[in-house]
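User: Hi! I have a protein structure encoded as tokens and I'd like to know what sequence might fold into it. I'm fairly new to this, so please keep things simple.
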């Protein structure tokens, strides 16, 4: 896995406008079906918070940063290229001709994508506290760790039910 993370790069895929989330879901399904978890590490539709004025009141909503585009962290080879390129809704990779070009460190920084791996002092079964983000001040037991995404899945009580929530390693600390 550590070797895979070093070879994986972020690529931009052009989609039909409005199909970004559907493309993400389709690629995630293809990764699962074809067991490409080691080669296609993450699929993202970058979102940003925007304040809108509606009926005289301010409302914060999430909007797509790049409508018509999806970011994919993957190892480029014939299999991964084929899977992504032939996903319904994908029109192609961004790059000259048919050659996909990975994003540079400078291009990724404003997107909030961290390339360095965060080392953690907790494992599955440990209790952690969320120190940032939407789930700040939440405590949970680690159910799963995903080093490719640099995230941990914890169960959070939501509407009286245990609900799994994925949280970035950067947002948690061990209790």
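Assistant: Happy to help. Inverse folding works backwards from shape to sequence: for each of the 175 positions I chose a residue that suits the local structure. Here it is:
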């Amino acid at each position: 896995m550590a070797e895979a993370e070093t070879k994986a790069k972020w690529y931009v895929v052009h989609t039909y406008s409005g199909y970004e989330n559907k493309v993400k879901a389709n690629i995630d399904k293809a990764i699962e079906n074809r067991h490409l978890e080691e080669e296609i590490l993450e699929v993202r539709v970058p979102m940003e918070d925007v304040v809108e004025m509606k009926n005289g009141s301010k409302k914060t909503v999430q909007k797509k940063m790049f409508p018509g585009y999806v970011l994919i962290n993957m190892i480029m080879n014939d299999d991964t290229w084929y899977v992504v390129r032939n996903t319904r809704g994908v029109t192609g990779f961004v790059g000259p001709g048919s050659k996909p070009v990975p994003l540079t460190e400078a291009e990724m920084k404003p997107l909030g994508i961290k390339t360095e791996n965060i080392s953690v002092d907790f494992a599955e079964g440990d209790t952690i506290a969320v120190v940032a983000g939407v789930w700040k001040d939440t405590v949970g037991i680690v159910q799963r760790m995903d080093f490719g995404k640099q995230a941990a899945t914890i169960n959070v009580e939501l509407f009286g039910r245990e609900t799994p929530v994925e949280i970035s390693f950067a947002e948690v600390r061990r209790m």
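A useful reference point when you look it over: Residues 127-174 form a domain with the SH3 type barrels. fold (CATH 2.30.30.30). Feel free to ask if any position seems puzzling.
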